[in-house]
């Protein structure tokens, strides 16, 4: 046993060489605080992303693809500029929200395709 310093509280204690916390409670509290900090920093983006997914899922329904006007999507609360990844479709990279592709078609219209 060697003299160690608790990462969370700064208390000194005797523990194993790989022990960083005096108690299990301190360890749990430290990692919960760390996870909450990350969760809160991503909250705004994740909320918009989830909302976009729900909107595209709702308006597509059982259809494989459909075309919608930009104003219709904005009226539903869709946030342009938020996406999960780019995916090749018809020899071009297209914005995607999980399994929905968002394809601009000109004249303020967007085709949404369920992959």
Q: Sheet bearing the most strands, described?
A: 5 strands, antiparallel
* Individual helix count: 2
Overall mean pLDDT: 95
Strand content: 25-35%
Topology pattern, helix = H, strand = E: EEHEHEEEE
Q: Which outline best applies?
A: elongated
Overall number of structural domains: 1
| Unreliable residue runs | none
Whole-angstrom Rg: 23 Å
Q: How widely separated are the two ends?
A: 57 Å
Structural class: alpha+beta
DSSP, total strands: 7
**Helix residue percentage:** 25-40%
Main sheet: strand order? 3-7-6-5-4
Summarize the structure in words.
It is a single chain. This protein has one domain (2-114). Helices cover 38% and strands 30% of the residues. It is built from two helices and seven strands, in the order ββαβαββββ. The strands form two sheets. A five-stranded antiparallel sheet has the order 3-7-6-5-4. Strands 1-2 form a two-stranded antiparallel ribbon.
What is this entry, summarized?
The protein has helices at residues 24-60, 70-76; strands at residues 2-5, 12-15, 65-69, 85-89, 92-97, 100-104, 109-114. By secondary structure, it is an alpha+beta fold. It has one domain.
């Amino acid at each position: 046993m060697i003299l160690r310093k608790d990462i969370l509280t700064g208390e000194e204690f005797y523990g194993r060489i790989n022990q960083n916390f005096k108690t299990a409670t301190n360890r749990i509290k430290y990692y919960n605080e760390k996870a909450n900090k990350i969760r809160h920093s991503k909250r705004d983006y994740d909320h918009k992303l989830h909302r976009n997914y729900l909107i595209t899922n709702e308006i597509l329904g059982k259809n494989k693809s459909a075309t919608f006007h930009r104003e219709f999507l904005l009226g539903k609360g869709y946030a342009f500029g938020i996406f999960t990844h780019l995916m090749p479709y018809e020899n071009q990279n297209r914005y995607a929200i999980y399994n929905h592709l968002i394809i601009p078609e000109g004249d303020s219209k967007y085709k949404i395709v369920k992959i």
